[in-house]
Amino acid sequence: MVESMCLTNMNKGLLICVPYAANIGGTATITGTGPNLIASNLASTDYGSEAGVNFLTWMLFATPSMLVCLFLAWLWLQYMFLGCSCKFWRCSCLRKQEHRQQIDGFDEDSVKQVLRRQYNELGRMSFAEKAVLGHFVVLMLLWLTRDPKFISGWSVLFKDK
After folding, report:
1. 126: which residues sit within 8 A by CB, 6+ positions away?
2. CA distances from 86 to 36, 89, 90 (A)
3. Any idea which of 44-53, 85-94, 101-110, 126-135 has the lowest mean pLDDT?
4. Whole-angstrom distance, CA of residue 127 vs CA of residue 144
5. How far is CA 144 from CA 19, 57, 135, 151, in A?
6. How far apart are CA 30 and CA 143, in angstroms?
7. DSSP β-bridge partners for residue 90
8. Mind listing the pLDDT tens digit for each residue in 92-110?
9. Please, is 81 exposed, middle or buried when counting C-beta atoms within 10 Å of its C-beta (0-12, 13-18, 19+)?
């Protein structure tokens, strides 16, 4: 009974942690959420080039507070759904004992075996997957180097129009 209650609460916590993390993580980059774009545009409109808000400076400003908020959300969700008895990734009702307890017919080793087998079945990256990865890396580099403010970025090439 205690195990099923703990698993139910853990399922609820995992279900709600995804949107929390997505919202909190979205604050770390300008393109993460719409309000970030609006704030960046307002700063540029009100203060002009002195604002110095670009992708890199936004990340330098917002990432520390995002990490603090993410940690606080993790603590809050852990307290709300797993209680005070949970310490650093292990819930007291899920701890290993001398004999591994099976929960719903699965123990930790069988889950690891299934995950490892599925990972091995993925095989090597296809050309399309490598192309998407390459495009993403180029996109990140372009975002970070457009106008870094401490040197001229590639955006100076397009000042005329």
Report:
1. none
2. 35, 7, 6
3. 85-94
4. 26
5. 26, 9, 14, 12
6. 10
7. 87
8. 555 444 344 455 555 678 8
9. buried
In contact, 78 and 13? CB cutoff 8 Å: yes
Residue 148 is predicted with a pLDDT of 77
pTM exceeds 0.70, yes or no:
no
Q: What is the largest CA-CA distance in the chain?
A: 72
Place of tokens 């889950």: 111
Of the candidates 148, 102, 121, 98, which has an alpha carbon nearest to the alpha carbon of residue 4? 102
Lowest-confidence pick of 15-29, 38-52, 56-70, 124-138:
38-52
Q: Which two tokens stand for residue 140?
A: 């990140």
Tokens for 41? Answer: 């545009």
Which two tokens mark 2? 């205690």
